[in-house]
Amino acid sequence: MSSIKISDAQELRAHFEELIHLTDEEFASILSYFTVKKLKKHQFLIQTGDHVHHSYWVKKGLLKATFIDEKEKEHIIQFAMENWWITDYQAYFTQTQAIVNVDCLEDSELYCLSYENREKLCSELQKVEYFFRKKANSGFVALQKRMLSFLSNNIKERYEILLSQYPDLFQRVSKTIIASYLGVSRESLSRLNSRL
């Protein structure tokens, strides 16, 4: 992992400035806490059992977080594309071993923020703490909506919600991966596609 030039990080600045205003000095300070990591398609960022020291902001690429159950079935928990964050949140915030895998569906460039540096940033700049709190709140809402969708919507409704929220995703991943995220078989998704 290496440091990041300010000229290469304008998308990250814009991401922060969706919620907070930053001076050039403040952004330079924030950026100094990040490092960059590049991975190829199919490479793992995190594997079950790893110690998770970083949270990752996606500058370029697409990743998925998965959980493997006792029957060796893979369940997709989250996708992360440009301008999204990803990690094993339980392991990151408790500084324990990963229980999920995170791997690259495309070549990816990630900005890495260690737990220690995140805590320092939040203590040094109140507006950064506000930023991460608002991002966490949005994440909780999205997770609850997804859980309720699984409980109350049929496959067609879940498919249409995903398509309306993330149309680009359907161009970037296979139908098998979409089916796994929706919790259905590839065959069920094919039947649904033929009816739509």
From TrEMBL:
Highest taxon above the source species: Bacteria
InterPro entries, alphabetized: cNMP-bd_dom (IPR000595), cNMP-bd_dom_sf (IPR018490), RmlC-like_jellyroll (IPR014710)
Pfam family, one: cNMP_binding
SUPFAM superfamilies: cAMP-binding domain-like (SSF51206)
Domain Cyclic nucleotide-binding: 37-123
Name of the featured protein: Cyclic nucleotide-binding domain-containing protein
Provenance organism: Chryseobacterium lathyri
